Amino acid sequence: MRLLTLSQLTKCYDGHTVLDAVDLTVAAGETVALLGHNGAGKSTLMKLVLGLIQADAGSVSIAGHGPGSAGARAQIAYLPENAAFHPALTGTEQIAHFLRLRGLDPRGAGALLAKVGLKEAARRRIGTYSKGMRQRVGLAQALIGAPKLMVLDEPTSGLDPVSRREFYALLADLAASGTAVLLSSHALTEVEARTDRIAILSQGKLVADGSLAALRAAADLPMTVHLRAAAGQAQALVAAFPEGVRRVDAGGDHLTLNCPQVEKFAVMDRIRGAADQVADFDIHPPSLDDIYAHISRRAA
Ligand SMILES: Nc1ncnc2c1ncn2[C@@H]1O[C@H](COP(=O)(O)OP(=O)(O)OP(=O)(O)O)[C@@H](O)[C@H]1O
Q1: CA 153–ligand 1 middle distance (angstroms)
Q2: Domain range summary for the chain, segments of one domain joined by +
Q3: Atom of ligand 1 nearest to the CA of 204
Q4: Whether the Cβ atoms of residue 62 and residue 3 lie closer than 8 Å to each other
Q5: Which residues line ligand 1 at a C-beta cut-off of 6 Å?
Q6: Contact call for residues 192 and 287 (beta carbons, < 8 A)
Q7: Which CATH architecture has domain 2-210?
Q8: In CATH, what class is 221-299?
Q9: Are 155 and 78 in contact (CB under 8 A)?
Q10: Distance 91 CA to ligand 1 centre (A)
Q11: pTM exceeds 0.90, yes or no
Q12: Percent of the chain scored above 70 by pLDDT?
């Protein structure tokens, strides 16, 4: 079931189009990463979804409800990049306060904080929390009312690698229970393995939308193969891969090859043929960084 549908969504500021006829959907249980350079239109898109600003053309549907309507607000939760909380309140007091504002039982705060891994710290003042812990308070707040769609603006910016991994594990649990997640990020490598689909905005236009595998296939970028020569075999190894064909770098006992996708079996055969000269080799498929740079360059 589609929880978010954007159709031809367009927004202009001062005669300048910052979002240009964007079509995008997010289904129940799906996690979609929205990528784009500074000023690409990510926050504008999220503000339109939240109903904070009005579109100039096109539409937003949140499970059939218009953005900002009571029906949409009941389904959607938002976590801003830097959620701010009162430092003097404990985690429990802060979440209980938000629960009361939503007309819900404040005794639910403990369960929400436990869900985001803050059970032990729940009675401590938020002023003593690390950034990662404050981000978890934000997630606990976003979970109030069991939203069906979560909109997260750069949720892991400033978090250390372990906190990032834990945050994505929480998102994976939410997605497994059917929540749709739309998140923006600049950290390409971290969304690479943790999202179902990647949507790329460039100058307000949606220039890519698909799984990493689909984007990788469409970009058709070469793989990189690093070879290490066996002892005394450096020259023979370099000679086995003529310059100008696939070799892009040779230095000392190392050799780097560019391997177009269509040639990967042929290159593997060739490496096997040179097995006596090779001590070891690694294959690197194009990363999301490579694919993103390629798609952005093409769009520009
Ligand atoms: N209220 C506004 N008035 C005029 N221009 C605006 C307004 N809000 C955003 N813009 C412009 O719209 C464009 C898109 O901005 P937006 O904040 O959506 O980008 P973003 O992709 O979220 O960028 P970042 O990654 O830096 O947060 C930018 O050129 C920005 O200057």
Answers
A1: 13
A2: 2-210, 221-299
A3: 14
A4: yes
A5: 13-14, 18, 36, 38-44
A6: yes
A7: 3-Layer(aba) Sandwich (3.40)
A8: alpha beta
A9: no
A10: 32
A11: no
A12: 97
